[in-house]
Design goal:
- The two termini are 49 Å apart.
- The chain is extended.
- It has 7 helices and 3 strands.
- The longest helix has 29 residues, at 50-78.
- The chain is mainly alpha-helical.
- α6 (137-162) packs across α7.
- The protein folds into 2 domains: 2-78; 92-193, no CATH class.
- The protein has helices at 2-6, 9-18, 20-38, 50-78, 92-97, 137-162, 171-193; strands at residues 105-110, 115-120, 128-131.
- β1 and β2 (115-120) form a beta hairpin.
Length: 203
Amino acid sequence: MWNQFNQLHTPIDNLHDRSSSLADQFISVASALESYGTRSSSILSSDSTLAQDIHVQEKSRNHTVLAAEYKQLLQEIRDLPDFHDFLQPPNASNILSSVPPDGSVIIFIVNKIQCDALALTPGINKPVHIPLENFTLVEAKELQSRLQSNLLNQREAEDRDRAGRPCAFPHLPYMASILKELWVKVVYPVLEGIGYSVSSPDH
């Protein structure tokens, strides 16, 4: 719900046009819930006073009531014409219908468990899953660090060159090694996964 609240601005503007009272009520309840979510939790303990225990229990009841009201309002909004997907994740078919007709959209998923790519391709009614079996989060961070260092060295070399001190560009072979690693572990598997005819990584 907290992520939904942060992304609320555009859909709530549309709701205001349809029903300003319902939009204001929804914002009020969502704000109250957001406030509960950002407060530090209070925990009942054997050392707490009766007044403290009552206060914590009252807060818990209020939160439960707000959550139920939020759910009810959300259902009311989704029952309105054209609002059935209010605060819902985008439908896959809608996303795929928006893919450019002359190419694919590639989404990379990089985490500690595994790395994958999802290809949204015209004419295919579901995302294509492409495992990046030889790529890891650690390697991604290492390549990012190497690339940043390389770009910094390149900028310094260009500054020296502009100052009238010609210098070699030792960063070029280093950049080539970064690009080759990305080609072998990321780009080639993706192109192969979406059916492009490409040379093997060894060529």
